[in-house]
Design a protein that fits this description.
By secondary structure, this protein is of the alpha+beta class. The chain has helices spanning 2-28, 44-69, 71-78, 81-111, 113-117, 121-143, 147-150, 155-163, 170-173, 177-192, 221-226, 236-257, 259-267, 273-302, 432-436; strands at 305-310, 320-323, 329-334, 340-344, 363-366, 371-374, 392-393, 395-398, 404-408, 414-416, 427-431. It folds into two domains: 2-204, Fumarate Reductase Cytochrome B subunit (Up-down Bundle); 304-436, Rieske [2Fe-2S] iron-sulphur domain (Rieske Iron-sulfur Protein, 3-layer Sandwich), CATH 2.102.10.10. It is elongated and about 105 Å long.
Length: 438
């Protein structure tokens, strides 16, 4: 029940509060719809807090949004190991920048008297939550490496399921506690946006583009005595328009000068007939893979039994991969008593595919984060990142005429009778009834 609230209820509560709360605040108290800058009160420390924070959070937001909205492009980029290392390093560096900026901002709020006087409890709560969120993200990057890869198979589909109003909690059920807490903390921050200074992210000062420049001077007697009065007549609006015109003209000339390069860049290099044929072959292969996947889905919808392999083909030390009814990878082995053993090949840690070979301890290895699973029970070994066991799958044995001889459910319950002499000619099948009741 708690998981349903945190990962299905809380996101929608946060989203509704964000939209409704920001609209209400803008309509009821428009002048508070900003960051309420304290630069006039103290600006030296603000520089060291604001610049690293905004630079770091901008990089982190870009790195989180691209996998969500362009997952296919992101996966193709992550195939390159050098690029993956660059992305992970840039994310850690950006998180450190955020931590430094937030720490400076928090110390400034607590120690500078003038700033402390205008600091509300919500300011401190938001700063604390932001620090906590960045620390969690840095912890995830260090403890569960290569998040740029595995997040496209877990958190990205989960967030899309929320957007499509079909929340799939199975995608986050097996994530490490730190990753789940990182998600919950993000939802809480979204919930607090309408009640804090964070609302200024929606206040885009477009009017500043055509507003005349302004000089702000403290209006008090001491300042008036110390600063000589300088009378200047500055046609600021005219100067602004001249500058804008100059920038526009320069940009137009620059664009015209490199137009052919820009067109060539977006159009791409001219390909030879051989390169065009190779590109078409790749596209055809992708279409064939997609069509094959749809055929597998259709087959699993129509049939109560799906053929896996002939029993005599299965081995005790090397499993055979197949696809179960949920379109997930699984492995088929043959036990010492001659019967099949079917087990899920999707790691319960972050969803990687476990290896098919069995080691000397009769364990299966997930190469992503070095989790070992017992072949017969599916349980992870002590100290493995994975906590949940690999699920066992039910199976059925049929003879060459399609007669059902023996069935075994995921929990080991068998139905039917068989003759040992008939085993070598039997086929192994997975059963829809067992997966539907799992």
């Amino acid at each position: 029940m708690l998981n349903v609230f945190l990962f299905a209820g809380l996101p929608y509560i946060a989203l509704v509060t964000l939209v409704g709360g920001t609209i209400y605040r803008y309509r009821s108290n428009r002048f508070s719809y900003s960051a309420l800058s304290s630069q006039f009160l103290e600006k030296k420390t603000l520089l060291w807090g604001s610049v690293p924070w905004h630079l770091g959070v901008f990089i982190l937001l870009i790195g989180h949004l691209i996998p969500i909205f362009l997952p296919g492009l992101w996966r193709s980029l992550m195939v390159n190991q050098a690029f993956l290392l660059l992305v992970e390093s840039a994310g850690i560096a950006a998180a450190i920048l955020c931590l430094f900026g937030l720490s400076v901002a928090l110390v400034r709020r607590l120690t500078v008297a003038k700033v402390q006087a205008v600091t509300s409890p919500m300011d401190l709560v938001v700063l604390g939550l932001l620090l906590f969120q960045v620390l969690l993200g840095l912890g995830v990057a260090m403890a569960h490496r290569w998040g740029a890869v595995w997040s496209t198979q877990t958190t990205t589909p989960y967030l899309w399921s929320l957007l499509l109003l079909q929340p799939n909690l199975d995608l986050v059920a097996n994530l490490p506690p730190m990753v789940r807490l990182h998600l919950v903390s993000a939802f809480v921050l979204v919930l607090l946006v309408p009640f804090s200074r964070l609302v200024h992210m929606f206040s885009v000062p477009l009017a500043y583009l055509w507003r005349a420049p302004q000089i702000v001077i403290w209006n008090n007697p001491r300042r008036f005595r110390e600063v000589p009065v300088v009378r200047q007549f500055v046609e600021s609006r005219r100067y602004f328009l001249r500058g804008a015109f100059g920038l526009t003209a320069g940009g137009t000339l620059l664009t015209a000068g490199v137009m052919d390069k820009a067109v060539s860049f977006f159009r791409g290099p001219a390909m030879s007939p051989e390169e065009q044929a190779a590109l078409l072959r790749k596209r055809l292969q992708r279409l064939e893979m997609t069509a094959e996947e749809r055929e597998l889905e259709l087959e699993r919808l129509r049939n109560n039994y799906i053929f896996v392999a002939n029993l005599k083909e299965l081995q005790p030390q090397a499993g055979k991969y197949f696809i179960d009814y949920q379109m997930r990878p699984a492995l088929a082995f043959r036990t010492e008593d001659g019967l099949p053993l079917l087990i899920s090949a999707k790691c319960t840690h972050l969803g990687c595919t476990v290896a098919s070979a069995v080691d000397a301890n009769k364990q299966l290895l997930c190469p992503c984060h070095m989790s070992y699973f017992d072949l017969h029970s599916g349980a992870p070994s002590p100290g493995s990142p994975a906590l949940a066991p690999l699920p066992r799958l039910g199976w059925a044995l049929m003879d060459a005429q399609g007669k059902l001889l023996l069935k075994e459910g995921p929990h080991g319950r068998r139905e039917g009778e068989f003759n040992v002499a008939q085993l070598e000619e039997c086929g192994v099948f997975i059963c829809k009834e067992y997966e539907e009741n799992a």
